[in-house]
Design brief:
Blueprint lengths: L1 H20 L2 E2 L4 E2 L4 H32 L16 E4 L6 E5 L3 H15 L13 E2 L23 E2 L25 E6 L26 H4 L7 E5 L9 E6 L16 E9 L1
Parallel strand pairs: 4-10, 5-6
Antiparallel strand pairs: 1-2, 3-7, 7-8, 9-10
């Protein structure tokens, strides 16, 4: 009986000692199966290995950055043609309001006012930043190559008064109060050449406002705007409006549809 008890105690001790030895073996002086020298060697190896990987990664990034231009995108073959956008901003591209309820169109008016402020005449008085490009469509105004020098380019003045009834200068509600709302259409900023927009005898975006040189060289750039005023809307009936811009660089993409259009619904209630 005593012999049996002693063997059980011995087994427990061996089992306990085996569990402890997985972490520290006092006989071989090993921690987790490795000596101090072995841990030092493998630590140095992994430090050098990961430092080498980090060096390759950082070096690749630096080489890539050296090939990039700060003025324009390096690869432009996958850049879609610039699309149209309009103001006021509207949820789901639907403008719905009651002409006798100012609160129903207050957000639209605020959106237009905030955007149009940058086109005030008093903000375009600096002749070092702005120039008169004429009231009629003209060809490009050559301002040099994108990376020819680091000097900032002048921007064409565009007065909000050009929008006439949609300028918000006389009618501060942009026609919403009368049930004749305005939309302001703009072309998203494009770096580089735009070959042609509009048709002879029809309204469009004048070419003298292009090309755009980017934020660094063209920080005061003002996009030309087109104002659309709806003067004969039928009350309580939705009107679907689609605007398009035409040019040789604008093509239909089978995966993404038409990049150069936008559609909006306008509904006016009594």
């Amino acid at each position: 009986m005593k012999k049996h008890s002693a063997s059980i105690m011995s087994g427990e001790q061996e089992s306990d000692g085996g569990w402890r030895k997985t972490f520290w073996d006092p006989e071989k002086k090993q921690f987790l199966g490795r000596t101090g020298e072995s841990w030092l060697k493998i630590s140095v190896f992994y430090v050098i290995f990961y430092a080498f990987l980090c060096g390759i990664f950082i070096g690749s990034i630096l080489v890539l950055l050296m090939t990039l231009s700060v003025y324009k995108p390096k690869y432009q073959d996958k850049i879609v043609p610039s699309g149209l956008s309009f103001l006021p901003y509207a949820t789901n591209f639907e403008i719905i309001f009651k002409k006798d309820d100012p609160s129903s169109y207050e957000s639209y008016v605020k959106s237009l006012k905030k955007f149009i402020e940058q086109y005030n005449d008093d903000k375009q008085t600096d002749d070092m930043k702005y120039e008169n490009c004429g009231a009629f469509p003209k060809p490009y105004i050559e301002r040099g190559e994108l990376e020819s020098n680091a000097s900032q380019r002048k921007s064409c003045r565009f007065s909000r008064s050009e929008l006439q009834g949609c300028s918000g200068e006389i009618d501060t509600t942009f026609g919403f109060k009368e049930g004749k709302p305005c939309l302001i259409v703009k072309l998203n900023r494009i770096i580089g050449e735009i070959k042609y927009f509009g048709f002879a005898g029809r309204g469009g975006f004048p070419l003298q406002y292009y090309p755009y040189y980017g934020k660094m060289l063209h920080p005061n750039y003002l996009q030309p705007l087109v104002g659309i005023k709806f003067t004969n809307l039928t009350m309580n009936r939705a009107l679907s409006v689609e605007c398009r811009v035409y040019g040789s660089s604008y093509e239909k993409d089978s995966r993404h549809g038409l990049f150069y259009t936008y559609a909006s619904n306008v509904l006016v209630s009594i």
